[in-house]
Amino acid sequence: MSIPQSFIQELLARADVVDIVGRYVQLRKGGANYLGLCPFHGEKTPSFTVSPAKQFYHCFGCGKNGNAIGFLMDYAGMNFVEAVKDLAGQYGMQVPEDDRSPADRARAAEERQKHVTLTDVLEKAGAAYRKHLRGSPRAIEYLKGRGVSGEIAKTYGLGYAPEGWRSLASVFAEYDDPMLVEGGLVIVNEEEDKRYDRFRDRVMFPIRNVKGECIGFGGRVLGEGTPKYLNSPETPVFSKGRELYGLWEARNALREQGYVLVTEGYMDVVALAQLGFPNAVATLGTACTTDHVQKLFRFTDSVVFSFDGDAAGRRAARKALEGALPYATDVRTVKFLFLPPEHDPDSYIREFGHEAFQRYVSDATPLSRFLVEVAREGCDLATVEGRAHMAANAKPMWLQLPEGALRRQLLAELAGLAQLDAHELGELWTGKPARRAPWRPARGESAPARTRGRTLPVSRSTRALQILLSQPQAWERLSHDDHHLLCEMPAPHGALFAWLDSQHHDHGPQPWSALREALRGHEHESFAVAELAKLPPEIESDPAELEDILAKERQARRHEEMKRLAAAAAGDPVAFARYKALLEAQKPGRG
To answer: Strand 202-208 and strand 48-51: pairing?
Structure first.
């Protein structure tokens, strides 16, 4: 959807960045500004500043900065549209949706209301489960036996669903409320016309989304019943293939520890938090998907998957590898940790200690090495047939990798194992000649006459738009900061990038034909269509060109910011400190 820039400016004028940040960070007054410990990196001395006058936050330690919308994007992992909607909701403002038909707006309003109602129902059930836990010695004894303290149980909101068939009838006055069924709390037996609780005699683990809302539950049976673990069904607010248990609780630890540890179960997450690894999350009884990986990379650039060392663990790791490949850019790290068959993370740490497990994590198998291991499994590289088989196994995995140094280095390594030239293997897999280094004249030679080529767009933002509309998968290869940079551009570009962000979030990458249909009625539809039409069909959009555009845009913005700061530095200590930090960052050898 397109959100008018006038509304965004009105929203930022009404919102108080001190209030928004203060809900997540403990701030204290320090002169004209507020100070606190940065939520984006670990520190003991406050370097995080929030300016009420400028409605801006900045960390002099890690460089994170922005307005209230940017803070919600950085801290809660929301995309631009989600952050605008969330902030507008906090201030009772309705986000304009003029590009939708009345029927579409009515349906969207109905869905939003249903979302709110369902999460309220689930929150109420979660509170009842927590109350039942306090009155259940048996459930408490189970948690104590697993080494879970009361503090950790409170952090994760653990509860207990009693043995009765209709315990929730004492919580909800209208037990026949359809929302109890739609939220996955109650099951209806149509043949016998009976209703009963889905979760009975189970330790309950509430599942929260990135906003902290309860969207479902996982229940671990007490005793020998089956299934051992039971999840909420798919509902309008809960999808197992997109949500991760513990992500809300781990969000701060991910920034402090610098990586996320992906495990296989609720108790793994809770036990790891108890033993000093609060940066763990778990998939919800399903294989790791691309949606899971995309969500994780909103919070951190380093993911470590933890699996059992048996055959089932290796199969799960291969699924995780498939999900991670499209997001394995040169600035991200993906690793695979395989524990001995007799251990899970909990038992390993208890036997060998925190530091031993940390070393195990540090020495985990990098994605590149695991990809090669998977490709060569069962292949005899001493034979031509075995090498050809290995190359065939590697091809679909390699093709999923984003363009960059990692992809090219892996091509060289796989080509070496296949005993082929890297350029030959690249041509074989892509069906087109591999790009080689451009010809440069030797000393004394003159360069050939430059042929007339296409006229490049004057605007960097327009060229970025052409690339992202013609190569929609490139959006997923960009970082959270890249998305923020693009969405903040002036209209029409910023509005179109925000719309594209929303499309990716809701539908994933779509071809231009699908995007073209979704654009109909958008206030900047004609601009986007016209600019893409200017792109000659023989021109290929290189993701590396997009990276260069973003780098130049950042450089231009820094230059403009430094000009403004230099003018204000004499009378504003915050501006002076920011100017010094930017100046220092430009020195050779600095990041």
So the answer is: unpaired
Question: Which of 298, 294, 213, 274 shows the shortest CA–CA distance to 248?
Answer: 213
C-beta neighbour count of 560 within 10 angstroms: 10
According to DSSP H, which parts of 191-238 are helical? none
Question: 320, 315, 237: which is closest to 282 by C-alpha?
Answer: 320
pLDDT at residue 271 above 70?
Answer: yes
The DSSP 8-state label assigned to residue 132 in this structure reads: H
Checking 28-33 for CB contacts under 8 A at 24+ apart, the result is 31/573, 32/574, 33/574
CA distance 32 to 436: 56
C-alpha distances in Å from residue 96, one per residue of 1, 7, 112, 491: 9, 8, 14, 16
DSSP letter assigned to residue 227: S
Token pair of 112 as six digits = 């939003």
Cα-based torsion angle of the residue sequence 97, 101, 107, 113 in order, rounded to the nearest 10 degrees: 20
What predicted TM-score, i.e. pTM, was given to this entire model? 0.64
C-beta of residue 435 within 8 angstroms of C-beta of residue 426: no
pLDDT for 195-232, tens place per residue?
Answer: 999 999 999 999 998 888 999 999 999 877 788 999 99
Amino acid at 196: Y
